[in-house]
Each structure stands twice: as C-alpha cells, then as structure tokens.
C-alpha cells in the first residue's frame, strides 16, 4: 500500500525515501496560521490541517503531513519572508540554544493521529560577517528559523539534544510510532505480520 506525503518539502521526501517507504507526493493549499501559541500544539494542528486538506482529494488515503517551527524567547519562528528577515532570525539564534518543534499527522481514512518532537539546537557565536555570508546563500529562505542543519547551516550548529531528523523536518521514530499506533506499516518489510502469526 502506497503512502501519500502531504508535503512539498524536499527534505521530508528525502527522509521517507531513505528508509524505503513507498509513497507519492500530493499537496493541497492550507493556511499556515494558527491561534495556538503553544508550539507543540501549533505544529500538530498545522500538520493535521495539511493532512486533512489532502484527505479531501483522497478520502481513503494513508496520509503523512508535518509542520516545523523554531522557538526562541517564547516566539515562534516560521520561514523568513525575505533575506533581511532571515538575517534577523539568525542574529536571534547566534551564540545560544533554541528549540525546533515538528508536528506529524498520520491519517488513514477517518482515523487520525498526531504527535510532535522537540529538539534543542545550540548555535555557536557568529560574527556579523558569518551571519551575512549565511543569509546571502539564500539557503534558509524556505526553512523554519531561516537555516538548514543538513546543508551549509551545519557550520552554525555547535550541538543538538534530541532527534536530528526532527530538525530536518520529519522525526522518523515518532512517525514510526504513530503509524504503529494506527496499526499501519510504514516500511512494509519491517511491519508486515510474520508468516504463520495469526
Ligand atoms: C530548522 C530546519 C528546518 N528545515 C525545513 C523543514 C521544513 O521543510 C521547513 C519548515 O517549513 P514547513 O512549513 O514545516 O514545511 P514546508 O513549507 O517546507 O513544506 P509543507 O508545508 O508542504 O509540508 O523547514 C530544514 O530543512 N532544516 C532545518 O534545519
């Protein structure tokens, strides 16, 4: 059975592909706004919105969606609007720790489940020249918090506590647990019932 990834994120596609999940990509437009100020609730709500919008197109589909934000000083940072906002975000993150939240939603027809993961990321102190260099790469423009840990952004990161893949946009072990809670195999040869088992 093929999964539907309700996400345009190339990172999420890459991660699912790396573990051998059979899936297609299908996205539907949803608002990225939420009234939720609690980041763990907000990312789950947004992931559920993305997944439900795709369920309108494929009511019987098995759907995976996710949403990632960065939190610092009680503020939630999404993707920067432009290069100058990206630079501002990086200035806020330099030389300290922030927390990345990713919410994941899994839908199978009318059944739904969601969860989240939080990872603390510590940036090293960065000079103004380094901040400007990174912002000018444009790499952070389509990423929450304005950086990508898996690309040149790795040069900004001193250390992390928690799931690395959560920072990239899809916490894989959390996703596996959510699929198992719905009794659905994420990777078929991992979760197929053993032969001879009832
Ligand atoms: C912090 C961080 C975020 N990101 C990315 C993951 C997400 O793709 C993106 C956060 O934006 P999202 O709104 O979560 O996702 P998206 O707009 O890319 O895709 P879609 O809504 O269609 O699912 O930031 C990284 O790739 N690396 C990082 O280090």
Categorize the overall geometry: elongated
Mean of pLDDT: 95
Number of domains: 1
Count of runs of 4 or more consecutive helical residues: 7
Helix content: 25-40%
Radius of gyration from the alpha-carbon trace, in angstroms: 18 Å
Unreliable segments of 5+ consecutive residues: none
Strand fraction equals 25-35%
Hetero groups: thymidine-5'-triphosphate
DSSP, total strands: 7
- Main β sheet profile: 7 strands, mixed
Quickly give the CATH architecture.
Answer: Alpha-Beta Complex
In the CATH scheme, the class would be: Alpha Beta
Helix-strand pattern, N to C?
EHEHEEHEEHEHHH
Amino-to-carboxy terminus distance: 20 Å
- The CATH topology comes to Maf protein
Secondary-structure content class = alpha/beta
GO molecular function, one term: nucleoside triphosphate diphosphatase activity
InterPro entries: ITPase-like_fam, Maf-like
Cofactor: a divalent metal cation
Family: Belongs to the Maf family. YhdE subfamily.
Please summarize what this structure is:
InterPro entries: ITPase-like_fam, Maf-like. With 198 residues, this protein is an alpha/beta fold. It has 7 helices and 7 strands.
Task: Offer a few descriptive terms.
single chain; 198 residues; alpha/beta; 7 strands; binds thymidine-5'-triphosphate
Structure, described:
The chain is α/β, with parallel strands linked by helices. It has a single domain, classed as Maf protein, CATH 3.90.950. It has helices spanning 10-18, 39-57, 83-93, 128-137, 164-168, 172-181, 188-191; strands at 3-5, 23-25, 62-72, 75-77, 97-108, 111-123, 157-161. Strands 1, 2, 3, 4, 5, 6 and 7 form a seven-stranded mixed sheet that branches.
